[in-house]
Amino acid sequence: MLNNLGENVEREGLLDTPKRYAKAMMYLTQGYKADIKEVINGALFSSTATGVVVVKDIDFFSMCEHHILPFHGKVHIAYIPSGKVLGLSKFARVVEVFARRLQIQEQLNEQIADAIEDILEPKGVIVSIEAAHMCMSMRGVQKIGSKTLTTVARGELKDDQKCNETLFKFFNSSVS
Ligand SMILES: Nc1nc2c(ncn2[C@@H]2O[C@H](COP(=O)(O)OP(=O)(O)OP(=O)(O)O)[C@@H](O)[C@H]2O)c(=O)[nH]1
Ligand SMILES: [Zn+2]
């Protein structure tokens, strides 16, 4: 790549760049090697809880599969327990597993929802992602402020439109 750019690959600043780049790429795509079971690490607890649980504003960095440029933003997750609850930090760990791959936002959204369903077998789940895509801001169409919003709802949180709308508003509100 550096040769193709017309760079002098012998100059000091670039000598270790291929190695650094490979290392950075391995880090940014480490989700391929992750094992969800290990990630959950047994933090799945029996519970009689019936109320909606929301974990919002989970920040993430991913890489778009079309341009291998970053897209980043926030993931919001809500679910209705059905006999089990998951350790709260594990939602962010699940997000990391799927974000640290070459992705498109829609697929990332589906995969996170699938994983939550598999792990928790909840009565309902909703996962929403808001993200900015570098391939749309630093190149191409060059729209800096644009954000992409995707949502996947399953079970009771798909069927209950009112609850769905309330959660969606909460996802997009700021709370401190
Ligand atoms: N649906 C979806 N599209 C994405 C995502 N990330 C990037 N893209 C789009 O993938 C498309 C690839 O289009 P192409 O026309 O093949 O590539 P391109 O010539 O680089 O397109 P431009 O970005 O319009 O310059 C672009 O429209 C990108 O915006 C994503 O997460 N989801
Ligand atoms: Zn892209």
UniProtKB/TrEMBL annotation:
Keywords: GTP-binding, Hydrolase, Metal-binding, Nucleotide-binding, One-carbon metabolism, Zinc. Homopolymer. One of its GO terms (cellular component) is cytoplasm. It is an enzyme of class 3 (hydrolase). Belongs to the GTP cyclohydrolase I family. The keyword Hydrolase applies. Its EC number is 3.5.4.16. It catalyses: GTP + H2O = 7,8-dihydroneopterin 3'-triphosphate + formate + H(+). Zn(2+) binds at C64, H67, C135. One of its GO terms (molecular function) is GTP cyclohydrolase I activity. GO terms for biological process: one-carbon metabolic process; tetrahydrobiopterin biosynthetic process; tetrahydrofolate biosynthetic process. InterPro entries: GTP-CH-I_C/QueF, GTP-CH-I_N, GTP_CycHdrlase_I, GTP_CycHdrlase_I_CS, GTP_CycHdrlase_I_dom. Pfam families: GTP_cyclohydroI (PF01227). It comes from Gynuella sunshinyii YC6258. This is GTP cyclohydrolase 1. Residues 1-169 form the GTP cyclohydrolase I domain. Pathway: Cofactor biosynthesis; 7,8-dihydroneopterin triphosphate biosynthesis; 7,8-dihydroneopterin triphosphate from GTP: step 1/1.
